[in-house]
Design a protein that fits this description.
Blueprint: H1 3-29, E1 42-49, E2 57-63, E3 74-78, H2 98-107, E4 114-119, H3 126-130, H4 143-151, H5 158-176, E5 186-191, H6 193-204, E6 211-215, H7 228-240, E7 248-253, H8 263-275, E8 283-287, H9 295-300, H10 303-310
Parallel strand pairs: 3-4, 3-5, 5-6, 6-7, 7-8
Antiparallel strand pairs: 1-2, 2-4
Helix pairs in contact: 7-8
Length: about 325
């Protein structure tokens, strides 16, 4: 076995272990965890938000320092809510610190007034809720059966998760806060599997989400390099990617850890996006050399998706 192959195997085993640890951590703290500690703005916890479609989960809402009921705010929905602020409830104990990045950009006048809705994952159902459900039937066998059994618990649930976001959570947010509820001011963002579900959300509900940010998008689905799962996702997107005239798309990747497996798939995704009519005016795909697949890496480059999707247009 050569050194590169051995290193890849270690990465894959480590990734599987992290998934198990993350699920256990969520189960242990999801109902008792304190609200995230933040450095700017203020945090409001909605508690366990019930749903007719998926298991209830914690939702945290970040409001900027100058939140004012006389103004109107764009809304940034983010997945993996336990990791996007201070990271105390993240299995890695590292966070994105979105409050720091967005608070600074707001203070500098570089982005529009925005609030952040952090939607926790449940741990055990994260994969089944975050993988593009309508792409599953497009995966060639036997890869489809193996993938659905191993990662999706034989029950893809992304469509139910999106129903929760669109039919239950968004109306709650728009009623409780002074938002701009139109698609042009509703952005969805995530990393890894969160990148997959963000792109899927904009494709399934283009009238709800006008922009998506997909960091370190986990095209391969599992932990083995493959073409069947990414190709199925691309086949779905070829028929469902929304109109580029009124949608914006941000994608990126690093070059180490799991991100080292993404280049051929991200290249195909970039080509597909261009094929569907997106240009530099409404889409971007960036590479961050040396960056890995972790919250610290995503935190360091948050300014890029925030300014691209929420910045003031020239």
């Amino acid at each position: 076995m050569n050194i590169a192959h051995h290193t890849l195997r270690i990465l894959q085993k480590t990734a599987r272990l992290l998934v198990v640890i993350a699920a256990a951590a969520v189960a242990a703290c999801s109902t008792t965890s304190p609200a995230p500690v933040i450095s700017s703005g203020r945090m409001e916890r909605l508690g366990l938000v019930p749903s007719q479609h998926v298991e209830p989960r914690l939702v945290d809402v970040w409001l900027p320092d100058d939140y004012n009921p006389d103004k109107r705010y764009a809304v940034l929905y983010m997945h993996d809510g336990q990791s996007i602020f201070d990271g105390a409830t993240s299995f890695s104990k590292k966070g994105w610190h979105v409050d720091v990045a967005l608070g600074r950009l707001l203070q500098e006048g570089r982005v529009k007034d925005t609030i952040v809705v952090g939607v926790w994952n449940t741990g055990s159902t994260r994969w089944s809720e975050y993988f593009a459900q309508k792409a599953v039937p497009l995966i060639d066998e036997p890869a489809r059966s193996i993938f659905t059994a191993k990662f999706l618990q034989d029950k893809p649930r992304a469509d139910d998760y999106l129903r929760f976001l669109v039919q239950e959570l968004k109306p709650l947010i728009d009623k409780k806060y002074v938002t701009r509820p139109d698609a042009a001011n509703t952005v969805i963002m995530g990393s890894s599997m969160g990148g997959i579900i963000s792109l899927y959300a904009m494709s399934e509900y283009p009238h709800v989400f006008g922009a998506a940010a997909c960091l370190s998008t986990h095209w391969i689905g599992g932990f083995e390099q493959n073409t069947a799962i990414p190709q199925a996702t691309f086949n779905y997107l070829r028929n469902h990617l929304p109109d580029p005239s009124n949608h914006r798309l941000y994608m990126d990747r690093g070059t180490t850890e799991l991100d080292a497996l993404y280049p051929p798939h991200q290249d195909l995704a970039d080509a597909l996006v261009r094929e569907k009519g997106y240009t530099g005016a409404n889409s971007v795909s960036l590479v961050f050399s040396g960056a890995g697949h972790n919250e610290v890496a995503w935190s360091k480059r948050l300014e890029s998706p925030l300014t691209f999707l929420l910045g003031y247009k020239p």
